[in-house]
Amino acid sequence: MKKFGLCCCFLFLFFTSAQADVKITKGITPIPNGNAISSGDITMQNNRIIISIAAETPGPWGVPRGGILDGSLIRNGKIEADRISLVDFIPNNWSAWPSEYQKFEILENTPETGSVYVVRDWGGAQLHSTITMKKDDNKIYLEGKLVNTTQKALADILPSHSLWTDGGYWFDMPGLKDKKTSKTQSAETAFSDWSVNYDQTWSMALHAPYVTDVGYTGRDMQKKISLKPGESMEFKAWLQILDSGDLAQALEFEISRKNMPHAVLKGSAKTTAGKTIEKPVVVVIKDNETYVWNMGGNGSYGLKLPAGDYQVYATGKGLAPSSKKSISLKAGSTVELNFDDVKLPGRIALSVSDEDSKEPVSAKVQIIDGFSPVVRFLGQKTFFTGLDPVGKTDISLAPGNYKLSVQSGAGFVTTPLTVSSEVVSGKTKKLDVSVKTLLFPEKKGWYCSDLHHHSDVLDGYTVPGYVMRAQLARRLDFTLLSDHDSSVHHHEMKEMSDHHNLPFLPSIEISPAWGHINAINVPLGKDLTIDAATADVGDIFKDARKIGADVLVLNHPYYSFGFFTALKDGTLPGGYDDNFDLIEINSSCSSKNWAKVIKKLHEYWDKGEKYYLSAGTDLHDVWSDSQPDIRMYANIPSKPASFEAFKSAFTKSLNEGNAYASLGPLVYPEIMFGSTVSHKKGTPLDLGFNISAVDGIKEIRLFTRAGKLLEKKTWEKDGPLTEEVSFEVKPEENTWYALEIDDTDGSRTWTNPIWVEVVN
User: What is the per-residue pLDDT for 250?
Assistant: First the structure.
């Protein structure tokens, strides 16, 4: 029996050791929902983690092949769903083209170590990447090297390792000055050199000791450099793939690799009733910012912290925070800190209806004042009423007093409603809210849609069900989904839209590195038939038309990855092509970007070229929608009975310019936008409009050729809800007229032009 026991023990150790070994294979990724789908792609795994490298499959957003396309945990021998959109070494702030070649070599393939070497060109320069995995390790070692093999200096470029995940929540690097900007900013004030994406059961931490600047609040870990011809620079980083949303694991690795003086903080957490919190979450605050948190178990917690001063509190899923405790930690010490005042949650049962019809309506609910967890899987600050039944939701909140903003078509046909409520531990409060609808654009033949919206594909964070909830709460007349190079959720969105009696516009945001193109109302589930990453502009436009897109839009054309930016920089493959329809005002861009779009449209209109407006939020995360709400209104005088005819009428109106882009104000013209009027030279022409704004009209401006402001009408105080406005013009030549309208809330509307053809 002893011999048999020893034999079993030996076999167990042998197989455990073998399972921990590194293994490299080629082919389609075994990671569920993975995107590496080619026979030449490379997968590397051990007993804890797995990644797949895009050796043949095109990279997302048009990035050249060579990055980590998929990655996940292996837990209890089972590979979990893909968590990575892209981890890659990017040469200059997402400028990775032109690239003529990407070469791959497996440097090492032993049970102890797996290593893949990638070399790519970038406009004559070279990028070298080495991706290494060790036995029984949860980290990927990333080595990047940029070599200036050109004959000119590379000045003030921003190479980076970048981490973009599938789903989860983003934790902005603590200490950054601006937590809202996507633009590059200095990392000088950051508390750490790591950034992390997380959910309750996993997290991804990117450690980049070289970092001097960051993009997207840490998703891109950059270093500003200049390289003379022949010079090179190395960039070393680590990617941790962790088995929970416990950020303390990322901090512990930083402490270890930097040999930082540190202490151990541990303790327990209980409710006010003395009940042990099974899975406490202890949040650590440094200099008034959330620094890190630890997920405990069995009522206790423990983590390592650099020596220093902190505030600490305990909480848990659906629980209120304990009181904050200040603590000073000395290097080498172990400190016990216990919490016994965590309160159990209460609930609000919310019902939202229309004040006049009494019918239930969909709504978004946001906490204006009251507790919302910083650890986002513990609870949100934004909620949506459900899909079935409509207009109802049950919200679990920490005890306390709250002010809630209830929004249903807010800013366009209603104003937000603020309600106050006390949440009592262990009790449910019923809250019935009625929203007053003030305006009815559909009764005048005007229907709206957000023409740019993402789900949880690639850099999106919103599952289709919540895309639907959010669009219902905005009272859009058409639902739409435009994910990056993907139609994967089209059928699901259509099924939900049909259930709610709304037409669905299946769309795709074609995403080469030089600029994004929205193909609107493509056949359901239809993708491009060409590789957009390497195709010329003209080929992309032709293929989008070929697969059946009704409308082609230049999305955010003045971004660093925008059509007109690439055209100006000489990086538009194939050069300028005019086979598009609309140009987008993207509400996630700055107002300066909007002004550039309007100026460009004026230039087209001056030449009689009939390109028109598009408008989209570019929403990726409906719970953190910091950008303004925007949508396109298009005129359909008689609503067709069938969804297909209704959609065709809507896209036809967009293409013909019978539409306007709005952040709030509504407008009904006597002469339709996009139409052409023949008028006698030099004689008066009356341009009449009915203007409405739920926040009150502030100013209306009339523009003509060369963007010239002809006339404006202004209300100093308390602008009206609705106003009839008329402008008298005397055109001397063929021209156009368009409006800008501001409301008292600062929201703006831009119209397409009314064309005037002068006759003698």
Answer: 96
How confident is the model at residue 18, as a pLDDT? Answer: 65
- pLDDT value for 3: 38
Q: Which residues pair with 405 in a beta bridge?
A: 366, 418
The pLDDT of residue 10 is 36
Q: Which residues pair with 164 in a beta bridge?
A: 86
Q: What is the pLDDT of residue 306?
A: 98
Structure confidence at residue 561 (pLDDT): 83
Residues of the chain with pLDDT under 70: 1-18, 625
**Within this chain, do residues 426 and 563 fall inside the same structural domain, yes or no?**
no
CB-facing half-sphere around the CA of 74: CA atoms within 13 A: 19
CA distance 687 to 692: 16
**DSSP secondary-structure letter at 297?**
B
Domain count, the chain: 5
Both 618 and 672 in a single domain?
no
Q: Is the dihedral of CA 632, 633, 638, 642 positive or negative?
A: positive
Which domain does 228 fall in, by range? 17-253
Strand ranges of the sheet holding 232-242, from the earlier edge strand across to the other edge: 102-109, 113-122, 125-134, 139-147, 232-242, 202-207, 194-199, 169-171
Tell me the CATH number at 712.
Answer: 2.60.40.10
Same domain, 300 and 413: no
SS3 701: strand
Radius of gyration, CA atoms only, the chain: 28
Structure tokens at 205: 């931490």
Provide the pLDDT for residue 269: 96
Q: Looking at the structure, do residues 282 and 156 belong to the same domain, yes or no? A: no
Q: CA–CA separation, 731 vs 112, rounded Å?
A: 80
pLDDT at position 96:
84
The pTM of this model reads 0.87
Name the burial class of residue 135, with classes exposed (0-12), middle (13-18) and buried (19+) by CB atoms within 10 angstroms of its CB.
middle
Return the pLDDT at 17: 53
On whether both 756 and 700 belong to a single domain, the answer is yes
Q: What angle do CA 257, 245, 375 make, to 5 degrees?
A: 115
